[in-house]
Structure formats: structure tokens, C-alpha cells
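S.,

As promised, the uridine-diphosphate-N-acetylglucosamine run. Input:
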Amino acid sequence: MDRLRIRGGYPLMGEIPISGAKNAALPLMAAGLLSADGLTLENVPHLADIASMTALLRELGAEINAESVIDGQGETLKIQARRIENIEAPYDIVRKMRASVLVLGPLVARKGEAKVSLPGGCAIGNRPVDLHLMALECMGAHIELESGYIHAFAPKGLKGGRIAFPTVSVGATENAMMAASLAVGETTILNAAREPEILDLAQCLIGMGAVIEGAGTDKIRISGKSQLSHTTHSVVPDRIETGTFAMAAAMTGGDVELVGAKIGHIQSAAAILREAGVTLTETERGCRVTRTTDKLIGVDVMTEPYPGFPTDLQAQFVALMTAATGASMVTETIFENRFMHVPELKRMGANINVHGSSALVRGIDRLKGAPVMATDLRASVSLVLAGLAAEGETIVNRIYHLDRGYDRVEKKLGACGAKIIRERET
Ligand code: UD1
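Predicted complex:
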């Protein structure tokens, strides 16, 4: 198992290329199942989760070719799902990656049947799939849960319906959009998620021939087609990677240009960072991040669905606030168990108290390097940020979580002067 050894205290200086978004690429890959004509995706990041989705699509019968790999840029994936031979997403793949549930909608829409293992619990909370199932039921699918599997079938095909989600879910909105694109008639999704990844998926589905209005708002209307055709689509830049590296630059007192970043996709996080004393300016190629003040300032934050502050940046923000002047109250409203980074940050000297869904972070002068353990994807990267700013050496163990979502993180940070190396644990 790999680990990262970081010597802290070096400001990040230079430029970091922002990869395609993992959370956009995964549903886009699943959308490849909707068409017999194939789907070409550009700017796909090099990540373990992408490899898991590739394995799953192959298991279902799709052919996938990674066409060109240019260092610093993403891959081009050609997905060819001429025939789907298998309708079962097995436990072994789904348990590794919850986003596997995104094949449910496309499979039922294309084949009239799907069997997808229930994802079960995960480190950051219970994460049920009831809203995914509700969406398909609203389109006429019949669902049974048997032996740990979701068995969904619609032998006569899906019909457009009205889906009113009681709470906002990114994945359920995506499953509904993909299924509705091949359903007969019109589907309306109410209380839809509004994330940029939703808009990216809509643009790809429109390119494939679906008629979609309102993506990016909370009401999406989709007119289904009997079949969808080939298109080529480039994955939107990763806003969570953008926010993460912006915080890394701020935390180390650096000056970094995030090349390819779309600052408009992190507006709420950018506003909070500005309050905390960070300067973010749009450049021709992306966004430049520097620190305005000598010390960061403690700011309160609450996670919310887009366009609010993203839960996927909460752990990194907690790390940032450990070194601020004053206190910061960080409240998590999306997932019930998402403060696993806190005990690890405390091992580095951070002053943090968790009360229910809020963490009170009292800034200290400087963190001290320590061996720490990565527990989930975003918690892992928050420990990397802490290590970059800490005095002395930090070793981040169990970084396979990091490899699920950050494309060559040590290479990108190392190119900006960070002292960070990957070691293989023997
Ligand atoms: C996606 C992102 C993840 C991010 C999350 C919230 C991908 C691949 N992953 O996850 O990185 O942290 O959005 O921004 O895009 N819920 C239910 N029932 C359901 C589905 C969800 O109760 O059927 C709940 C969840 O437990 C959670 C909330 O809804 O409390 C939001 O989850 P959701 O938006 O569905 O997250 P994901 O799509 O799984």
C-alpha cells in the first residue's frame, strides 16, 4: 500500500493543471450504455474510480478503448456498447465504488432490466439509494430488493413521469436524467440537483440526441428518444480539485495559477476563501490564488447542495482553518459522518472540537508533522494539505483513497515546490 511522505513549510509556487472532474466523468461513462453507436469522452482523469467504472462497463459487455494518453491531459475514452450482454453490476465492483449505481438507470432504459448490488454503508455515512429507485418507479419500473441486489425491470420500456425528489440528490438526478433520455414521452424532475456535473451530463445527453431543458436549475424536463446516437464530449474541469489546490496554495502562503479551472463553478467556496484572506482572480487560463493577509482569518461555513459550499471541500476547509487567526465553525449538512479527518488533524496539533454536525476549529500557530491515516477520499487530501503547511515531516498512510479522486497529486504539487514523495509500503 502506498503512502506519501511530505516535508512541510514550502509555499506552493507555479501552476497546476486541473483535470477533468471525476464526478462528471463517472456518470458520463455510464451514459455510454445508452447508445449502441458509442460515446467518445475527452479529458477523462487518470483515477482509480475511472478504472473501476471501466471494469464495470466491460463486465456489462461494453468495449472501451483509452485512445490517447498525453501527460498532463486526460485520456480519451471510446465507449462502445453495441450490445449489452450482461445486466448485472456485481457486489465486488459496487462495494469499491458507490457511483457504480449510476449504471442502474441506463441499463433499465436500454435493456428493460438491471440487477445492481446495493452499495451498502460507506465511511462517510449511510448513503441510501431510495431516491434512485423512486425515480425509476416514477417512470414505470418495478423494483425488488433480493439477496443484496436491486432488481429493476420494465419489460415494456420506461415511460416519462413526474419525479419530485423530497431531498436533493446528485446521483439520483443523474440516474433519472439518463433513464428519461430513452423513456417514451416527457419526464419532469423537480427538486433536481444543480451541480455543474449535472449540466455537463445534460450537454452530453443532448449531444446524443436527447431533448433536455432546465439542467442547472431545480426543474429539468426531458423528452425521451427511442435511440440515442454517437457524440464526442469533453469532461468539465474538476471544481473540487480546483478548490482543494486553491486551499493548498492559501495554506502554504503560495502563489499558484490553476490552469483550466472554472472559478464560476466554485463561487460559494471562493467567497468564503476571500473572507478568510485569500485572493482569487480569474486569469485567461483559469484562476490565480495568493494570500491577501499574513494570517488567514477564521470564517464559519455550512455545506449545502450546489450552489452552496460543497461537502467535498469541507475536510480541506477544516485543515485550512486549523492555521487561521480566531475560530471557525464548520457545519456538515449533507453526510452524517464526515469528520474522520478531525482525529488525524488533532494528531498534528490542531485544536478542533466536534459537536454533532459541527466542528469548532480554533486556529493555532502552526501544525506539526506526524504519521496520519487516510480514511476517505476528501479526508485524505485534507491531511496532505495539513502536511504541506506543517512543521517537519508528515506521512499520510493508506492513500488508495486519494488515488480514487486525485490525478497524480504528488506530481502536480511537487512541480510547485512541495516536498512530497510517494513510497511503497513493504
Ligand atoms: C455525489 C458525489 C459526491 C458528493 C455528493 C454530494 C459523485 C460520483 N459523487 O454523491 O462526491 O459528496 O454528491 O455533493 O458525483 N440520499 C438519500 N437517498 C438516495 C440518495 C442520496 O437519502 O437515494 C442522501 C445521501 O445519503 C446524502 C444526500 O442525499 O445525505 C446527498 O447525496 P447525493 O447527492 O445522492 O450524493 P451522491 O450522488 O452519492
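The pocket of uridine-diphosphate-N-acetylglucosamine is lined by residues 23, 26, 98-99, 125, 127-132, 167, 169-172, 311-312, 334-335 (CB under 6 Å). The longest strand covers residues 63-69.

- D.
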